[in-house]
Each structure stands twice: as structure tokens, then as C-alpha cells.
TrEMBL record:
It comes from Methylophaga thalassica. Pfam families: YHS. Keywords: Signal. Residues 45-88 form the YHS domain. It comes from the Bacteria. Residues 1-23 form the signal peptide. This is YHS domain-containing protein.
Length: 158
């Protein structure tokens, strides 16, 4: 009986661990299919200065999240330096992080500041964020290490 329990428990843990390796890391904002930034090309924010929808033809993975790109060149730039192009705070709302939360984002509510990509929940929230970008970035940088390993559902209860 104990042997059967241990075998069942071991199997359950193995299944859980293998599922976890396929899912985006908890500190990454990705949909149920592990797609980051709703399929927008993170490199285009830097090269085109505009949100640009990517294609499933050009993909790369970073922290178990899948990114789409509008071109092979953008995909290759990302692969060479993913931390340079990936959005800050795992793609969660930069303003939300200052409030200790991990909100989804609108890929069209964005800003590149000092060579880093920041996304916001929506354009209304972005209006608040741009009132003190340096202060909010400092606050979010201080807050992120504390909240990045928790789901927003958990953070909601704090």
C-alpha cells in the first residue's frame, strides 16, 4: 500500500514537473499557449518604434515564453540578446508592479526608456505612469524581486 502511494505520488510529481517545464515561468506574462506580448514583436518596439504584430513563422523562446517576430532578422536579434528586447517585469504592467501587482498589458500601451521596453495595462494607466516614469521605474525595480514568483491572484490577497 505504501509502495503504491509512493509510486502514485512520484508519478504525479513527475507529471507536474514536466508540465511546469513547458509552461512559461511564473515571472513571465504569457497566455495559456505561452505566447508573450499577445504575439507582438518585441524587437519592433526598438527598430520601428511601433508595436508590430509578429508571425508564428518567426519564433523564439525566452524564459519558457514564446515570442513572435515580424521578420527573421528581428528573431535573430532577439535570440542574440533576449534580455535586451524582452519587456521589463516579465511583460507585466510596469505601473501595476509599483502597486505590487502583476497585471496583463496592452501591447499598444508601451514605452522604451533607457533602452528597455515597458508595457502598461492600457493607455489610461499609461497616462498615470508617464507622469513620473523615473520614479515608477525605480519603485517597480525595487518591488519586482518581491512579487515576481507569485501569481497575481496570490498578490491580490496580500
Amino acid at each position: 500500500m505504501i509502495k503504491q502511494f509512493l509510486m502514485t505520488t512520484t508519478a504525479a510529481v513527475a507529471i507536474t514537473l514536466s508540465a511546469a517545464t513547458l509552461a512559461a515561468d511564473i515571472d513571465m506574462n504569457a497566455n495559456a499557449n505561452d505566447l508573450a506580448i499577445q504575439g507582438y514583436d518585441p524587437v519592433a518596439y526598438f527598430t520601428k518604434a511601433a508595436p508590430t504584430k509578429g508571425s508564428s513563422e518567426y519564433t523564439a523562446t525566452y524564459k519558457n515564453a514564446i515570442y513572435h517576430f515580424s521578420s527573421e532578422k528581428n528573431r535573430d536579434l532577439f535570440r542574440a540578446e533576449p534580455a535586451k528586447y524582452a519587456p521589463q517585469f516579465g511583460g507585466f504592467c510596469a505601473y501595476g508592479v509599483t502597486k505590487g501587482r502583476k497585471f496583463d498589458t496592452d501591447p499598444t500601451a508601451w514605452r522604451v526608456v533607457d533602452g528597455k521596453l515597458y508595457l502598461n495595462l492600457n493607455k489610461d494607466v499609461q497616462k498615470l505612469w508617464v507622469e513620473d516614469i523615473p520614479g515608477y521605474i525605480t519603485n517597480a525595480n525595487d518591488t519586482w524581486p518581491t512579487i515576481k514568483t507569485f501569481s497575481d491572484k496570490t498578490l491580490e490577497t496580500f
